Amino acid sequence: MNQQTPSFVSQIDPYVYQTLQEITGTMVVIQTTRGTVSGRLKTVMPDHIVVESGGSPFFIRTQQIVWVIPKG
Fold this sequence. Notes:
The chain has one helix spanning 14-22; strands at residues 27-32, 35-44, 48-53, 56-61, 65-70.
């Protein structure tokens, strides 16, 4: 029996990742391929970020980010 193991492939932009890490905890506006999310940048991981908006967490794939505006 031949079993295949699934693999995970993700593009990581190290400059975006580093910049987002530096502004973690600040208010941001994130434009994604699906729309805009405003709130506090809570978590930055290599493949996604978490923005808290209106008391709810929004999990956004880093590949879906178009631009970010920090609101310091």
